[in-house]
Amino acid sequence: MAFEMHPLPYAYDALEPFIDAQTVELHYSKHHATYLKNLNAALEKYPQFFDLKIEQILSDLNSIPEDIRMVVRNNGGGYYNHNIYWAVMGPKRGGEPTGRVAAAINSAFGGFANFKEQLEKAGMGRFGSGWAWLSLKPDGGLLIHSTPNQDTPLAEGLYPLLGVDVWEHAYYLKYQNRRADYLTNWWNLVNWEEVERRFAAR
Ligand code: MN
User: Fold this and answer.
1) CA 29: distance to chain centroid?
2) How far is the CA of 70 from the centre of ligand 1 (A)?
3) Which terminus of the chain is less hemmed in, N or C, by CB atoms within 10 Å?
4) What is the mean pLDDT of residues 61-69?
5) pLDDT band with cut points at 50, 70 and 90 for residue 202
6) How far does Cα 128 stand from its chain's mean position?
7) Same domain membership, residue 105 and residue 190
8) Ligand 1 centroid to 128 CA: how many Å?
9) Does pTM top 0.85 for this prediction?
10) pLDDT, tens digit, 9 for 90 and up, residues 89-111
11) Same domain, 107 and 157
């Protein structure tokens, strides 16, 4: 069974004014959908991989035949990373986390303000295209880090709880070259309930 798009959990214009409707539409229906299409096309040659979860595939890229490994790494990563990105945002969100994830963030990063600063720094420090993440380490601790291109935290043995896309296609129409402004505004969209759900599910 081929991998499928997760429905966008809100309308294209729901993230206004922080992310404009045209960006969300292009990002979801063109960029994200193309990663998925390319992933499925590559796996047609080795359909046994359709039986796996995308997390399993991306956690063990060495098990993917070499002739499609880079396509799967880039496009499978693009598919998975964007699934998280859309899910951890929403209209009328933002604010501060509560519960266990808030306690874990405070303990790991010395407070929410420091956490935000460090995640923004990870996003700003990514030269070119990539992602900034809050991930769970195998020992249960939290880590802020960045990946290039569409590489995933899974490939490093980490489990992503929150991710922000810093490819220009995520912000250029509204913010042009101002990635920092996009990141600052992005906090107004973070769906902490979903982050908490991902944290609790591990
Ligand atoms: Mn993207």
Assistant:
1) 16
2) 18
3) N
4) 98
5) confident
6) 16
7) yes
8) 13
9) yes
10) 999 999 999 989 999 999 999 99
11) yes
Domain encompassing residue 159: 99-200
What rounded mean pLDDT belongs to the chain? 97
Selection from 161, 160, 165, 170 nearest residue 149 by Cα: 165
Residue 107 CA to ligand 1 centre (angstroms): 30
Is 13 within the bounds of a domain?
no
11 CA → ligand 1 middle, Å? 17
| Burial tier of 135 (Cβ tally within 10 Å: 0-12, 13-18, 19+) | buried
Task: Count each helix (H run) and each strand (E run) in the chain, helices first.
Answer: 10, 3
- Distance CA(122)–CA(116), nearest Å, equals 10
CA of 165 to the centre of ligand 1 (A): 6
Structure tokens, 133: 């993440």
DSSP letter at 123? H
Q: Are residues 70 and 154 in the same domain?
A: no
Amino acid at 176: Q
Closest by CA to 196, choosing from 80, 46, 93, is 93
pLDDT of residue 1: 84
Q: How far is the CA of 78 from the centre of ligand 1 (A)?
A: 7
